[in-house]
Each structure stands twice: as structure tokens, then as C-alpha cells.
Amino acid sequence: MPLPNPAGYINILEQLKLEIRTARVRATRAVNAELLQLYWRVGNIILKQQQTQGWGAKIILTLSTNIRQEFPNLQVSRPATSCTCASLLRFIPAIDLRNGAVLPPETTLL
Question: What is the pTM of this model?
């Protein structure tokens, strides 16, 4: 037996669905911006060690392994990601997404 729909029910339902979708998009963008900044900072730290201390692939692998033990689900703890973070710094400047800059809608780091 279907439940009765009071006047305006469908409009309220659609409004709530839109609110939920909009909040999800904003939350995803905020998380992506923070992750992008994290990757940049990780890459920056690794790149500085490579340049000043001569760190190579074996040290980065060990570093990655140790970080993964503490944070098993963190993508940046994988050796390839750590190397990629450091490599990207050679081509991109610092990114500040906190002050109104946004990622393109199709960009997802999660």
C-alpha cells in the first residue's frame, strides 16, 4: 500500500537530493585539494633530500615502507607515488587551493 504524499512532498524530496549531491561535490573537492597539497609537500620533502643528501630509490622505498606501516591506506606511501610526487615538483610550482582556487570538476584524487 503506497504512502500518501502531502502537498509539496516531491519538491522537498528533490530539493534534499540536490542538497546532498551538492554537499558531496564540495566535500570531494575539499578532500582533493588537501590531498593535492599533501602530495606536493611530500614530493617537496623528498626532492630536497634527493638534491641535498643524494637520496635514491632504495631510501625512498624504505621511507615508503615505513610510512605504509603507520598509514596502510595512504596512497602517497607507495614508492611509485612518492617518486611521482617528487618528480612532479620539477614541473609544477607550489599549489595553493585554500584561497579560492579549485580543481577542475573532472579531477579526482580519491
Answer: 0.61
Establish if 51 belongs to a structural domain.
yes
Rounded to the nearest 5 degrees, what angle is found at the Cα of 105, between the Cα atoms of 104 and 109?
A: 85
Q: Are 89 and 47 in contact (CB under 8 A)?
A: yes
Alpha-carbon torsion (36, 40, 45, 47), positive or negative: positive
The ranges of the chain with pLDDT < 50 are 103, 107-110
Domain assignment of residue 93, yes or no? no
- Residue 98's identity, in one-letter code, is R
Q: What is the DSSP string of 19-80?
A: HHHHHHHHHHHHHHHHHHHHHHHHHHHHHHHHHHH---HHHHHHHHHHHHHH-TT-GGGSHH
- Could you tell me if 89 and 41 are in contact, meaning their C-beta atoms sit under 8 angstroms apart? no
What grid cell was written down for 39?
602530495
Structural domain of 64: 9-88
